[in-house]
Structures are given as C-alpha cells and as structure tokens.
Design a protein that fits this description.
CATH class of one domain: Mainly Beta
Distance between the termini: 32 Å
Largest sheet: 7 strands, antiparallel
Structural class: alpha+beta
Organism: Stenotrophomonas aracearum
Family: Belongs to the glycosyl hydrolase 3 family.
Keywords: Hydrolase, Signal
Pfam families: Fn3-like (PF14310), Glyco_hydro_3 (PF00933), Glyco_hydro_3_C (PF01915), PA14 (PF07691)
Protein name: Glycoside hydrolase family 3 C-terminal domain-containing protein
Mean pLDDT: 92
CATH architecture of one domain: Sandwich
Length: 898
Amino acid sequence: MTRRPYHLVGLRGPVLATLALCAAIGLATRVHAAEPKPWLDTTASFETRAAALVAEMTLEEKAAQMQNGAPAIERLGVPAYDWWSEGLHGVARAGQATVFPQAIGLAATFDVPLMGQVATTISDEARAKHHQFVRDGQHGRYQGLTFWSPNINIFRDPRWGRGQETYGEDPYLTARMGVAFVHGLQGDDPVYRKLDATAKHFAVHSGPEADRHHFDAKPSKRDLYDTYLPAFEALVKEGQVDAVMGAYNRVYGESASASKFLLRDILRDDWGFKGYVVSDCWAIVDIWKHHKIVPTREAAAALAVKNGTELECGQEYATLPAAVKQGLISEAEIDDAVTRLFTARMRLGMFDPPERVAYARIPASVNQAPAHDALALKAARESLVLLKNDGVLPLSRDLKRIAVVGPTADDTMALLGNYFGTPAAPVTILQGIRDAAKGVEVRYARGVDLVEGRDDPNATPLIEAAYLRPAADSPERGLRGEYFRTADLAGTPALVRTDAQIGFGWDRGSPTDNLMARGEAGPGQGVPNDNFSIRWSGQVLPPVSGRYRIEAAADDGFRLYVDGKRVLDHWTPSDRIRSDGVDLDLDAGRAYDLKLEYFDAERDAGVRLGWRMPGAKPPFEEALDAARSSDVVVFVGGLTGDVEGEEMKVNYPGFAGGDRTDLRLPATQRKLLEALKDTGKPVVMVLTGGSALAVEWAQENLSAILMGWYPGQRGGTAVGEALFGDYNPGGRLPVTFYTADQKMPAFDDYAMEGRTYRYFRGTPLYPFGHGLSYTTFDYGKLQLDSPRIAADGRLNVQVEVANTGKRDGDEVVQLYVRRVDAAPGDAVQSLHGFQRVHLAAGQKQTVAFDLDAYQALRQYDEARGAYEVPPGAYEVRVGSSSADARVKARFTVEAKRD
C-alpha cells in the first residue's frame, strides 16, 4: 500500500504546526529540549529506549502505567495516556467521524482491497483526531492511537448479539478481512506505526453474553485449532498485529486473560508474537470474583501478568506493588511488561519530535472528508446482499407511488450497529429511497414498533427536514443547532450547524438499559462527552391545517417552545429516557417559531423531536392505507443495536441480554408483513441487522428480499440506488441463514458440529456465500496446473467467468475444497479463496487462485498434538456460493505433517 502525501491544510506551515504540536505535548518535548534522556535518543531502538525509561520508574509508577488510564509522570516527561480507543467500522466514541458499514457488512463485500481502503481511512481520521486532541491538551479515553479492533471471533451461532462485530462464520474469510484491516490501521511506515490494531477476543469467545463472565469454553482441540485459532494466527504472523485482547470467559479452566496455554504456549512460543496483550475491560476482576481461580485481587493481577497480559483495562493492576511484596510476582516481570508497553508507545512516535513522524502531519481536515463519504457509500453498496428477487427489482420509475413502511426505514440507529462515531449527515433508508425515486411519489408510514413491550421513543415520526427551516426565508432545511460546552447553554457555542432532523443518540458502548441513546462521546468538535447542551431554533411549516401532536424525548433535560411559548419543560437530569408531548392547532401556510433546548448531564446522551399530523390513523392502519394506495410496498425492518448487542440490560420477546432467543423477525413486524401481503401489492423487504434472520415466510410470500446489515452513514443512498437499479447488488452472505424450526446446538456448547456451513449437515434457508444479481454469470472449465500437489505445496486454479446478462455487475468467485473420502468430524467443505470481480455486460475474465494446499488442507491431529494434511483425493469447487459449485476438479495430495 502506498503511503499518501499529507499537506497541513488550515495550519500556518510545517514549522508552526510542529511548534504547536510540541507545545501541546509539553512534558516530553520540554524534557527533550532541556536535558536529553536515553529514552529520547532517536538513534537507539524503541526497545532500548523503553527499557531505559522504565528503569527510572518506581514500582508504583510502573503499575499505574499498566492500566488503560495511565497517568502522567511529570518528572520523566511522560504524558498521561488512555489506551482505550475504538475503531470497529470508523473512529468510535470520539465525536464526528466517517461511519462505514458494520463489520459484518464489510465482510459481506468479500472485497479485501476495499477493506484495506476502509481501514486506511479510519486510521487517517484517528491520527488527525489524536493530534488535534493533543494540541487541545486532551489525553482522555477514545483520544489515543491504540485501537481495540478488529473483532475476529468466529460467528459460530446466529444468536450471538455481538456477531455483528465480526467478519462472519468462516476462518479464512475472517483472516483475509482481518489482515487487510490491520494493515490499513497500522500503516506501512518502516519505522513508526500509524495506529496499533488489536485482535480480539483471544480466542474462544462468542456468547452467550449473559454468561460471559462465568462460563468455561472447552472445545475439542481440533475445533480450537481448525476453527477458533486460524484467524488470530494469520493476524499475528501475516498482519504483524501489535496487540491482542483476551476475553472474559475461561478456556479449558484458565481465564482467557490469564491463560498460560493461550498467551504463552500458543501466542508467544508457537506464533512468535512480539507485541502486548490487553485484557478485556474488567476481565481481571472476573479471575477472582467470578471464576474464583485465585482468592484475591493481588493474586489475580499477578497471575495475569505472569501469564502474558501486560495491560489491563480496569484497576486491578493497582494492586501489583502489593503483589510484589507478597511474593506473588517479581518486579523484573513487571519491568518486562511495562517495557513492552512503552516500546509500543514509542513505535507510535509519542516520544519523538513530530517532524520525524509522517503520520503526525495528517491534518484535521481529513476527518469526514468528501472522499471518505464517497468510500462509505462504496462500502455500503458492496455490502448489500440480494437474497431473493422474482423480477420486481429493480423498481421502475414509471410507478406512480411507492409505500415505504417499517420500523427501521427512518431510523438512524439502523445504519450504525454498535461501536460507532457520529456521522455528519447520515442518510436513512427512507431518505435514500426518496432521493433515488426521482419523481415517483413515496409515502411513508412506520407501521409498528421494532419489538413488542418496548416504550419506543421512535414511535412518533421525526419532524422531517422538509417542514423545518433554520430561519425565515432560509433556503436550507432543518433547524439551527448551537452546541455548548456547558450544560446551561452558556457562553459561545463550540459548534453551530444546521441539523436536518432532531434524532440523535451518541454511542457509549457500556451496557445500559437506555432505549435510544448509548453514547459516552458527545457530538464532538469541541463539545465534551458529558455536561453539554444544545439549542435548536428555527421555524416549522405545517403541511396541512389541524391538530398536531408534537413530542420530544431525551436522556436528561429538554424544553420546547412554539412561538415563544414554553409548551414542554423537563429541565432536570434523568437516569432514563423521558418523553412528553403537546397537542397544538397549527395552520398550513404559516410559519411557527420553534425552539428545542436540551442538556446532557452524564453518561447516556440522546434527543429527538417528532410529530403526528392531523387525522393520522393508528400506525398499523396508516401503513396498510399507504400500501393499498401504492403500486409497490417496500418494507424496511429487522433489528437495530437497541435489541442486539453487547451484554445489554434489557430483554424483549425473542431477545436476552443482547443475544437472540428467536431467529425470526420480531412478532410486531411479522404481523405487519402478513397484513401487507394481504393487500395484494408486491412487497419488497429490506432487512437491517447484524445477524442471520429466519425469514422463510418472506422467502415464500414476498417478491424480493435485500439484506442491508447496518450499512453506515450512506446506507440509505446505497439501498435506494439498489432498489431502483442504479447499482447492481453483488454482496454475499458471510454467515449461514437458517430456518426458524432448525434445531441448533446448545448456545453455550463450543463444539463446531452442526454449526456454520462447514459443519452443518442440513439444508439452510440461504447458504454461506449466497447473493443474487440483476445479471447472470457463467463459468468455464476449471483448470488445475497439476492433478497432484507440487513439491512446494502450491496449486494454481483458473476459471473463466463471463457476464452473460444485460447489466454490468459484480461476481464473487468463491473457491472451496472438500476431502473426497471425508472422515467423521471433517468439515463438509471450506473456503480457501475468493475474488470479487466487476464485469461489464458480455465481458469475460480469467480468475486465478494460487492455493497453498498444505496450509489450506491441514487438520489438527489431537493424538499427535499437531497439524497434518491427510493424504488422498480432494475436490476443488468454484462457484458463486457454498451451495452453488459451478465447476469442480479433483487432485491428490501426499501426506504432509508439521
């Protein structure tokens, strides 16, 4: 990957920019200038410099540096640093940032180069943000250069709520996507790291969320080595990932964050890992409190460090000085751990003059640059998977009216998933359809709530931008937003902008029972995470005369004014989301002054402003009326991060703690879909979500199904383009979709038999790798360079692929291998190559794969305790999904053992 040039946009030249950054860094540069120390000697290795710095620290100082919130050591010129930053599909929890499709959606692109571009863009924004934070004297959480992504756990069970964070169920796909992501994050400078990526959660961790602090995963060693470890091995050996994160649960009786077997024997001894290990947050507490492996905090901290976890997310490592005094660990072992950590910080350039670090010159202007928005749109387009189409798609623009109904059509949260930043101008699916319709009337009705039993603040539709303007006679649409650094609307606004709609929830990521807002980070751009306030003002222009129900909802305080009169007043903190409404008679053709004031005290932050127009029927009937009066119905539903996610504290029918207990759509949505079908109008379903859905009723009864995942800030644009044929969808499923009545193995059983396309022996609803197109592709004869594996273990495979349809499109050519004389417990088949190719109508292309057969075919032999390649006959299968092998060929292999 070629490193792009950077220009100091908006600064006064390289010299002044360097001086400003040096002044902000402060402590380190002053020490460097006044009395050079060996750890500031840029001619020495990072390891040597780190050891010299650690040698000057007290035991207590060393222990403090081993916790994520590491304090400053002023006498040594060490600035404060928080190791905790997130960047799963965009810089998260650090204010405004470009938001790409959720990780599972990125995996659905099957596009490795695209993944590299996405990660490079994330790291550009992360670097720019970090240096701006430093210039502003900020050294807090989510402001650093050490990013706790990617999540490369295997999505072995569709019930897992955090599966959306992964690259799916296949080890090979996960490894290819993960290595590309790491390379994009860490950069290609021969001296400095751009960021530190973190492979998590090592190594056997995928639910249940409710039990993650308690359970002991005990897969067979064959499943461990054949399924759970390969992606981690690839990221360590190929990706050169600098950090690995442990998990909460035990593995074979040991805490994954203090496991000699995982962290010493495998990670360091077998794979040669040279970086550092960080615990999952508060996982060290679990060692003594929940797993009860040791009786005390001191013993837990000592055990974790001795077995290879250098950095703790939490506070248990504060007890390490006491652990040394108790003889549980030596100070030399602590020295080794802290030296690893400071080696990493030095490799990031934190202790060097900024002019030596090219990445330090990335300007703040790159954040949310137009090119980044364009890349977010490209990724959203490529993530879309067309599951079914009876010919109704693409939609014709000769239609008179389209009804868009469903609970996630106009919900920004349906774009985001979890672990996200604040997009500048997110495009909902409703807006994307309206933009793409180009003259076709679009009628919208939400219809139903997302799930049953939820006091849903989204039930009242947002006031749309078309009915708002920031000032009289303004050509803009929306309200003027003034964002203050204080909770009382005092002082000069840190940010002023026009917001099209008022419907925000800033991502916090910590478990909460909040229904709308989940953000530890505030709006960004100088607005703090907590204790901020916002004033929106402008005018509302009612489209019809009559009685309106205007509703506001917020976490913490809000006040609403109409024509200068305060009509809603809840200006007090709240530990839950609070909503209220007022009925007002408004006249069409008149503009009413509107003002909404909001403050956030601490923790969760979110606010929305909605209305119901005069004569509005109950939502369900409104949706059916919209359907009956339209030519086609587009139902947009599924899931959001409000119901599937990480260790959530709310439970609804079909959900438990963020996991799913029912693979079907929530009952509210199923009921609406059946009623829509009964109208006799064609129904197209667009699904949002981060996991497989059992939608066999829809497969049998609806006209088309498009899987949209959580598609990021431009997801609505991509969906609208795909529905009208401006873009030809070509994504593929990175997970198997099962039927609702399919009996699944126990969720807490980590055996792979019966799971994923590799070990599932039944017939899925949609197979791994499945995805349709608006064109057709044919495959020529499969060619192998030899019927036997060459001495170097390589096998070259080629096939000609032709676009035989009338539209340009993408085909994902997939290569699977299966053992002809499979033994009990063998995988049905395994993916070992894929390429996404774009072909114009009528175009042909030869697609070649260079298969490392000995690596691809290896299986773990539990008796020998090592990998082997069983000799015999194998079959290469190439096609467009795991269940659609278009061409096949056989080859043989001699025995090969590691």
